[in-house]
Amino acid sequence: MKKRRRIPLQLKVTVGLVIVVLVPLVLSAYLIDSIGKASANVAAGEAAERVDTMEHGLDAYRELFDTTKRLHAEIADRLAKRPDLVALDPKASLDKILDDDSAKEAGLHGLALERADGTIVSQSVRALPTPAPGQEPQWRDKVVRQPLAETGATLVLTFEVPATLQKDFQNLKHAIDSARVMMQIRTGLPDTFRDAFLKLMGIGALLATAFGLVISTFYTRRLARLVTAARAVSAGQIDARSGLRGNDETAEVGEAFDNMLDDLRGSRDQVAYLQRIGAWQDVARRLAHEIKNPLTPIQLAVQQCVSAYKGADTDPARFGKLLADTGEIVEEEILSLRRLVDTFRTLGQLPKVEKAPLALGDVLEELRNDPLFAAKLELDPPATPVTVRADKLLLKRVVANLVENGIHAGDDANATGKVVVGWRADAEAIVITIDDRGKGVAEADRERIFEPYVTTKSTGTGLGLAIARKIAIEHGGDLAVAAERAPTGGARFVITLPVAE
Predict the structure, then answer these.
(1) What's the burial of 200, exposed, middle or buried (CB within 10 Å: 0-12/13-18/19+)?
(2) How far is CA 227 from the centre of its chain?
(3) Alpha-carbon dihedral 260, 265, 268, 269, rounded to 10 degrees
(4) Predicted model pTM
(5) What is the sign of the dihedral through the CA atoms of 425, 431, 437 and 440?
(6) Are residues 335 and 474 in the same domain?
(7) What is the pLDDT of residues 173-220, one digit of tens each?
(8) Which helix (H) or strand (E) holds 159?
(9) Contact (CB, 8 A) for 156 and 98
(10) Disulfide check for 312: which of 258, 281, 316, 405 has CB 3.0–4.6 Å away?
(11) Is 210 a domain residue?
């Protein structure tokens, strides 16, 4: 089947980023023109309507100013024609004039007769309300000077007018001017504004695309490393690893992938070890059968020969001694062969693991009952009791074998002290350590000593550690030699078992 060509992830991400960035940019260019025109029309209409309204108000102010001026001029002209005022009569009743309703309506609150030389003949002032402290005055004075006939005298009239009237007029005029300016800006929005906006959008789009390319390149390369490692594993390179580091999700996936491969490698090594042990078990069963069959006839024949000997004609003492020595040697060798056969039988007929909840401390405490271990065994229990699911008989056998090996290692090194057995439990496993006082295990022998018929002792078959590790693996754990020395100075053997549910 022809393999379909795949599009690289980085190319997909790049194209996606360009599309995501360009679509808003094109839409923005279109919408800017459309919205600009619509908003300009709306703003121009609203501004024109408001300007018209304010101009009507401004005209009303102007009319008010003109009317007020005419009123003041009319009152001044009318009063300037009064005979008593023209004659500069000091007794003219100015107060009466100010109290007149028409004068009050016009806001007249002060009158004065002034000679040509500036001296005052008479004057009268009507008091105005005083503003509260901190309050702006609501009224201001407006003075009108009206000549009196040909005398050169002047009639001075003081009117009250709103204090903010002129200010309000100026503010309204300024508001109209501002509205007209804003209307011109709104309706005449230059193209440079739109171009500047689109350029800024374009620069932002380029930066976003560049940033996306950098990020996509970073992550696609990390994913490519993960894919390369997966393909290498599928091709049989079980030692391949992704090697991803960091705190992001790809690093987490890479770490999980590497941990899975580590577990897979450990499981593969255990399976291979069990296969080798299984092959040795078949050999052991056959060899034990073949060795055991001739042992009994040999032993019976030698025993019969020795018992039937009644003496000889020449040097019977020497011959009898030779025959007795021969029988002793044969008996001893036959016993050695029987021990070897028993070991083979043990390897070939290991019982099936039957797990049950056990108090680990109680199981290890029973080792003290063995006279061989009583004086050479020290237990180092944890503060909290540990429960393990295991086969009691097989677990004791594993620990007993390791303790016995530790005692022999200490004796060979002429060391004093006991073999220390400690145990603990954590969230991942139950760990049993056996520390001896021997010479330790060379780095090259840490894996090799668990192979059948491999031993560093002068005596033994080399099957004990192989059997012990097989039992540990069948419990779901493992048996290994620690890389570092034990606190006791010798080797540390470590049994790991699954945590009991």
Answers:
(1) exposed
(2) 24
(3) -140
(4) 0.46
(5) negative
(6) no
(7) 777 777 776 666 544 455 676 677 777 777 877 777 777 777 777 777
(8) strand 153-162
(9) no
(10) 316
(11) no
